[in-house]
Amino acid sequence: MSEKIGVYICHCGSNIAGMVDVEEVARWAKETFPEVAISRDYKFMCSSPGQELIENDIKEHGLTRVVVAACSPHLHEPTFRGACQRAGLNPFLFEMASIREQVSWVSTDRKIATQKSKALVEGAIRRVVYHEPLEPIAVDIHPDVLIVGGGVTGIQAALEIADSGYHVYLVEREPSIGGHMAQFDKTFPTLDCSACILTPKMYSAGTHPNITLLSYSEVEKVDGYVGNFTVRIRKRARKINEELCTGCLLCQEKCPKKIVDDVFEVGMAKRKAVYVPFPQAVPKYPVIDTENCLYFQKGACRLCEKVCPTNAIDFAQEDEILTVQVGNIILATGYDLFDCKRIPQYGYGVLDNVITSLEFERLTNASGPTGGKVLLKDGRVPESIGIIHCVGSRDENYNIYCSSICCMQSLKFAHLAHEKTGAKVYNFYIDIRTPAKSYEEFYRRIQEEGTFFVRGKVGEVTDFARTPEEEGKLIVQVYDTLAGIQRRIPVDMVILSAGLEPRRDAKEVGKLFGISCSADGWLIERHPKLDPVATMTEGVYIAGCAQGPKDIPACVSQGAAAAARVVGRIQQKSILLEPVRASVVEEQCSGCRICNDLCPFNAITFDEEKNVSVINPALCQGCGTCVAACPAGAIVGTHFSNQQIMAQIEGLLDLAFEPSE
Amino acid sequence: MSGAAVLDTAPNATAQGLLGDPELWHCIQCGTCSGICPFGYLMDFPPSKMIAALRSETYQKVMAADTVWMCIACSACTTACPTKIPITVNLMSRTKEELLLEGNIPSELQAALENSQRYGNPMGESPRKRTQWIQETDQVPFMGKDTREADILWFVGDYPSFHTGVQPTARAFARLLNALGVNFAILGNDEQSDGDSQRLAGERGLFEMLAEKNARAFGKYTFNMIVTTDPHAYNAFKNAYPELDIRYPAQHYTQFLAERLEQLKPLLKRELQAKVTYHDPCYLGRVNGVYDEPRALLSAIPGITLVEMVHNRSTSLCCGGGGGGMWMDGFQWEKAGVRLSEWRVREAVRAGADILAVACPYEKPRFEDATKTVKGADKLLVKDLSELLADAME
């Protein structure tokens, strides 16, 4: 073997060196393998001097292969490949051994950790010999962008991209964009009106020449890859001709059928069968809810048709299927509210006047069911109100995470409830978490307003009175952990500050777009700190609450961040993809087609004439599923050949079986 | 009770032991346990404060207090705990264990535990009287005497065997078994207390002794499954005996009957025009998740209207008998001046029920007593599910 290999063992500060004898690994590599020309250990291989070390060695010693033993290749493989490239070595003649994630972080015995590091390094050395120089694949980037979800995050992202001069398809499942923010009354900590700051953005999104707004629509299928996605969208029939409709809403006014609005008004008010969810809806066109429309259900009525001044009612209208080409996708699909019925001891759904945070938002909203009056179910004004924090959050029975917005939301509720009713307000909390600009100041303000803070998570809410004073009240039974006593506090209204949960269909949405969810169900970002809006799938970004609970400022920031990433990508015009691809050796392919259906990227088709399977290198993501599945061994994975993998395995096993002292 | 007010800063064994339990370190001091505890308002150290005492290294204060004995092991705290700490079994019972060793224990409980050790039942009855509930017309085969093999081993339990107020429930269940043609037998006088309430009252050693005696009796015969008329016994066989490597499939009788509902239904001919509310026993419902089977059985009785009390299913309010509560009535009355069973009966009255249906042998005498003291409860009947079903067969 005439290769000259450079081996570099990283200390990663004390991350690796604290558990692995890095000097020994470097010494051993040089002594053991004749093809290792240079072997070094260094404090931080990823630093500039660390990279220069590699570059200089390649130039001075004519290295033909490079092995770095450091962290996971997820993090720094591109870094070291770059170093090789700058020194004139093809970047694919490099191999990385993960001795941090796979060794030092998960070991407690220095001797064994050092031994295991050697095994991993030997695997890399044996493998890298068989590496071949490869050239990346360049693909063009389609400048159009798909954004899924028209809440404040999606709107922000859409406007940023559209203002940059690129076209956006903004797809929203509901009849109007606006998301949860459109349901809110005031926003913390400034208490400015939610609608006042949101509706101008909604209007801009609805009228922007670079935005195609597809409301009442859903993405059904996504094919392709970064730069070249083909997306199928179902635009559900509104039964309204949008060309003719002026949004006068005479149809809504005259429609005789009323239904409880479970979506926008969270069950607290009724809407018509032909409706816009709220007056400021964008687009302004109503929707006929065919499941409740008298005409669709019973064949009679058609009153809307009669009153419409522009003949815009179109009962025969059918769903439309649109297919669009886009280069990048942003998912801003938001969250669902925790179902408070899951905590039976809080009485939601059983006790009148135990309401959720979203219900309180509607109650206190000037355009809500009570015109902004905070009232009990029987119309009385509450004299005392209890607000329970952390409902469904910080609770391993439901969601272990902190929903992060509930403290501030609950403080806001305390203010609004007090302001609107003069009621005595209790906030039942575990910890008050206000970690953002002006938030702690807001907490202080709410304290000064005379809110009774009780530190303790409520045990139960009941209407079963034990004393005459409790009669007719909701009794909040709680251990006041600061006073050290169990208290039963009678109140008129209880607001449950419900946590945020991943969308019920987050998993399916993730699958549709080729990304995954974390254990608690949120869509996963590429890196929690350094790459928060990208995902492991190139060209697919996430923003806002789809990624995890967030308040409005954070959602807007993420929407803008995702937009910036996408615009940056578009401006590169083309992108280099890793040449790690599968290919079929036609002479060996028996035409069994087993691989055809296995490919998660639909990259494999069948050539009927030649009777062989064919892989489209642009679609292939190099996952290797087909390579492993092919019974004839006819599929080759570039950079993951059998020879390379077997050599690596042999290297790994060579040492592992040596008894450690 | 020990009134040791002296602050001993030397670490005591209990605190050391409990601090070794990583689950207790998860506590976020939210106080849910102490808030939901039906007797939390009477405890000097409700669960969260016990953990706070551990962390502040002042656990000797907990050991010097006697209010841990207000815990009736109802598991409301454990069920609601947001960090899933097994409070009832780990924190409460282990503390009771240590209190017991130090002699800080109500004397009535002490007596019940001694009875359990001496006679195999907490009421101190002669073991030879265990089968006296059986009357001539009852067909109840005995293991050993009548057979050595049966499909079902029916573990009757202490209260259905000895307590005159509860014995009718055993006779009713015998009738149901016979009507369904079940091949069953009981242990007879070989049966010992299942020991579960003694365990939860802190007497682990006694529990192990009783379990081993029962295991020896089980081992003598061949059967496919244990069915028991006592949720505490069911909990023991399902969750606690396996820790001692005593493993038998077990069911509570409501589960057993619910599985045979199609066979049972045609037998339930007699109408019962009554509003019935069902009390979920802690060790059937909250602890073992059996909520639907008893309700399905009740619903199968013609004429019955099922109504729910304020606290139902997982939020059910304990009758006060668990974890040794059955044997601390005097002690707890002194502290509380009220019984949990009285609150529960008030709930049944408010629900508009004619009958309070129960499925645990502790409950019948407790609730029956409470109907005598709670206003408006004098017409409320307390019936075990087995009695209601057997009555409907006539």
How would you portray this structure in words?
The complex is a heterodimer of chains A (661) and B (394). Chain A is of the alpha/beta class. Chain A has five domains: 138 residues, Rossmann fold, CATH 3.40.50; 145 residues, 3-Layer(bba) Sandwich (FAD/NAD(P)-binding domain), CATH 3.50.50.60; 82 residues, Alpha-Beta Plaits; 166 residues, FAD/NAD(P)-binding domain (3-Layer(bba) Sandwich), CATH 3.50.50; 57 residues, 2-Layer Sandwich (Alpha-Beta Plaits), CATH 3.30.70. In chain A, 28% of the residues lie in helices and 23% in strands. Chain A is built from 17 helices and 34 strands. In chain A, the strands form twelve sheets. A five-stranded parallel beta sheet of chain A has the order 10-7-6-18-29, with helices on one face. A five-stranded parallel beta sheet of chain A has the order 20-27-21-22-23. In chain A, helix 5 crosses helix 6, helix 5 packs parallel to helix 14 and helix 10 runs parallel beside helix 11. With 394 residues, chain B is of the alpha/beta class. Chain B folds into three domains: 93 residues, no CATH class; 131 residues, Rossmann fold (3-Layer(aba) Sandwich); 131 residues, Rossmann fold. A four-stranded parallel beta sheet of chain B has the order 2-1-3-4. In chain B, strands 6-5-7-8 form a four-stranded parallel beta sheet, with helices on both faces. In chain B, helix 16 links the parallel strand 5 and strand 6. The longest helix of chain B is centred in the middle third of the chain and has 16 residues. In chain B, 54% of the residues are buried.
